[in-house]
Design goal:
Elements: H1 5-11, H2 17-97, H3 103-130, E1 132-135, E2 141-147, H4 153-163, E3 172-176
Antiparallel strand pairs: 1-2, 2-3
Length: 179
Amino acid sequence: MSPTKLEAEKVLDSSKPLGRLVATGKSFLLAGVGAVAEVREGGIEMFDRLVERGKPLEAKRKQAAGAVVERATKAVRGAGQLVQDTVEFESRGLLKRMNVMTREDVKVLSARITTLSKKVDEVVARRHAAAVEIVTPAGMAAAVVVPVPTPDPIAAAADLAGKKAKATQPSQRKITSKG
């Protein structure tokens, strides 16, 4: 037998103790449901506030991490440069002990060779300019006279002064062609 609506209203009559107990229980239930709703709303608001407070902290953390990465990168680059310099220094020392020319030695030697080559070219050009060719009446070269320069002009002058030479012309050498 199920209670009818009329019987339920008699039990829920607040003038009777059982009705008051049921009414109080219903109030507690509604209060609990309201508390859950309030906590839910307050929890969402609190969650949103915490998210907003966390955003600046995240930016600071990223900035601090970036600074640490930058310092570490500089330290690694400095260490890499130090290793490179050390290897280069030790390699030069080893090559020097083994009497092997370095790139710098080759550059210096190349510059010296270039300078010497220019000087030789100048001397050859002066000799050719000073050379005199003697031609026969038939048009054939009979001889080439090339002045022989003295190795040291001051010593030559002293020799000439000592011998009391009449003329101070450079000595000449005659080259004949066999034709």
